């Protein structure tokens, strides 16, 4: 027999395994989900938020403005400016306690004295009127002082002091009016307590007590104003607003990125397992 008549077996095509097909399908689904998450992650920065002045901004624009404000504040702080420093929480709590524990009881005592509340039988219309007037007077004065101090922060120098020369005529008038009202409140307390002391015969003690209460009222009112005045700056307010607006969007973007990373790791595992199975099948 001639050697040309010898036939050699041809290699048979390897049949695809069902588990390999399922691995490929799972990998395709993972890639599709990864592509979708990447699209959603990119779209997050194109969403809209409301800026501190009511303007519509994309999340990317808000992040850019927040970064520029942060750079500006940090640069001024490096130069020694204290203008952007915020008042700590303890100071704000102490200010609120001063108004609630000191100013309100003193004002309530003054109102009950004016309306002649009978403490033997205090419950009635005079006490109700005294409580309402004392709460309104204390809360109104504290709110006005806080609002005025908050609005005048733009006239604060690097040492957190008021620049009187930069104030407008309206601001000077408002500040002078509030100062006059605070002074009148202190004078009123002094007159009322000294009068009570004179009627009781304790003249020296009454005058001393009247001076003490008047000084406490003036110091408390000044504390409310300066706490609001020294608390941050307009730039700091804008930075906090931008940060608050973009924080949930950035958290969503981070969640998408975490899912992309997790699915990418799962896809790599499937790809390596499929490669090992192909190598084992080829050797078999």
List keywords for this structure.
mainly alpha, two-stranded antiparallel ribbon, 74% helix
Walkthrough of the structure:
Keywords: Membrane, Transmembrane, Transmembrane helix. With 284 residues, the protein is mainly α. The protein has 2 domains: 114 residues; 145 residues, no CATH class. A two-stranded antiparallel ribbon has the order 1-2. Strand 1 and strand 2 form a beta hairpin. Helix 1 runs antiparallel to helix 7, helix 2 packs across helix 7 and helix 4 crosses helix 6.
Overview in brief:
The chain is an all-alpha fold.
Number of helices: 7
In angstroms, what separates the terminal alpha carbons?
34 Å
Return the domain count.
Answer: 2
- Largest sheet, strands/sense/barrel: 2 strands, antiparallel
Q: What series of H and E elements makes up the topology?
A: HEEHHHHHH
| Strand-residue proportion | under 5%
Largest sheet: spatial strand order: 1-2
- The rounded Rg comes to 37 Å
Report the helical percentage. over 70%
Average predicted confidence as pLDDT? 84
